[in-house]
């Protein structure tokens, strides 16, 4: 990851919370992508400095983060929301985009929308993904 790049993470589940802890522990700069004010406020309350609020209801969302985005880690909450996040953030980076899922949705959908890797796990730790960077 470049010196001024931020990993971009979504925040829907305990697996993502643990992943964020690992990023903090390793001093990897990151930003959180959320799609509602409640999640944004929760992230701010947790001390997360960079929170990117996106509108996932608009088809042509032109929001572009003010920070440089490196790798993207999308923790699946739903098929629909994951697809919207992919559509929004794929153009923000040339680095890999990971979708981490605990569901058996067809990975081809995510790769077609720009995910470089779709990782299926029932585990509680996905920090191994950071070894690829």
Automatic annotation (TrEMBL):
It comes from the Bacteria. This is RCK N-terminal domain-containing protein. It comes from Paenibacillus mellifer.
């Amino acid at each position: 990851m470049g010196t001024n790049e931020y990993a971009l993470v979504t925040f829907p589940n305990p697996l993502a919370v643990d992943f964020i802890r690992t990023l903090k522990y390793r001093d990897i700069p990151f930003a959180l992508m959320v799609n509602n004010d409640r999640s944004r406020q929760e992230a701010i309350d947790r001390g997360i400095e960079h929170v990117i609020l996106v509108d996932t209801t608009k088809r042509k969302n032109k929001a572009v983060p003010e920070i440089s985005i490196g790798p993207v880690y999308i923790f699946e909450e739903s098929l629909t929301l994951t697809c919207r996040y992919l559509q929004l953030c794929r153009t923000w980076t040339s680095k890999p985009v990971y979708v981490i899922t605990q569901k058996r949705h067809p990975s081809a959908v995510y790769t077609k929308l720009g995910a470089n890797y779709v990782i299926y796990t029932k585990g509680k730790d996905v920090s191994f993904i950071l070894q690829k960077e």
